[in-house]
Amino acid sequence: MSTRATVHFRHMGKTRAIVYRHNDGYPEGLGQDLQAFLDYLKEWVPDNRFSDPNYLAAKWVVWDAKKHDKAQQPNSYDLDFLSVGVMMEDPSDINYRYSVDCNPEPYYIARGAPIQDMPVISYVEV
14-21 and 84-87 as β-strands: parallel, antiparallel, unpaired? Predict the structure, then answer.
């Protein structure tokens, strides 16, 4: 059975984007995947968009779709996936709701270098 979940990308206390995942929505699955995604962005992507929930959600869709796509199988296409979707609201059958709270502004250290905190991940069982 699938463990369905949504991820709400939030800014200033308001949801700006919702992404649905059809399976592995439990904390040991989706929770760890979200953390790995943010860690990767922090380490390897200079324009990580930690303060922009819409762009961060778009990056997440690409990341998660690649994880679940069928392109790893012969005779398949890169866009042949069904496990990730963009939603207007939570479906009624989700098991978990995650929030990725984006930091609204970078802070500055000595010499004026901007430092962007990573978004904070939280979840509730529905």
Answer: antiparallel
